[in-house]
Amino acid sequence: MKAMILAAGLGTRFKPWTDKHPKALAVVNGKSLLQRNIEYLQQYEITDVVVNVHHFADQVTEAIDKTSGWGSNITISNERDELLDTGGGLMKAAAFLKDEAFLTINVDILTDLNLKAFLASHQQDGSEITVATTERQTSRYLLFNKYNRMCGWRNTATCEEKIVLQAKDMFQKAYSGIAIFEPKVFDLNQLSGKFSLIDLYLSLAHDNKISSFDHSESKLLDVGKPESLEKAETIFA
Fold this sequence. Notes:
Elements: E1 2-6, E2 27-28, E3 31-32, H1 33-42, E4 48-53, H2 57-66, E5 73-78, H3 85-92, H4 94-97, E6 102-106, E7 109-111, H5 115-125, E8 129-134, E9 140-144, E10 150-155, E11 160-163, E12 171-181, H6 185-188, H7 197-204, E13 210-214, E14 220-222, H8 228-235
Helix pairs in contact: 3-7
């Protein structure tokens, strides 16, 4: 299986670090977030990885070149001219990922989620996309019906809700920023330009099976703000 690390974002919540550096190179116990995710994927023999770049792109590519990709085969997806968000960035990298099931992970996510179990669940469910979720508290949730099929999205802070598949009962789960896709998603997609993976999920969920893989027992941290680095250093050696 191949993977894509989504690393192009501006990291606006991560200032002042991101005034001069990409978030991908923020350091936790001596290793950058990017290095940690590449080494995490290596634990599951995933060594063919595409990394998209935009914000301080040269710093990211220099770090990869200096370390020979930390032992993995790294392909750069160049978004220097236009930041495409997570969904648009995925579509730009289609040529690298279109041959087999693949995984995406946000560069600021640290976890010990068992990827073998994740892939096995995806294959067993026969889904086009399987998203990793937990039962943690947040303000934005993906919604699933009793058959574990995605049917919408909800922001509890703003009361905004998007339902794409009606269900009598809907269960909200927090998205972990990790997903497994079948390559046919590239043919199914009708969106273009700049859009998020959440937009992609919502556009496909009515006619295609998007499932949840709950890994609430795993370690998971969104290193979204500078103060989360200290917490990350207590969880991830």
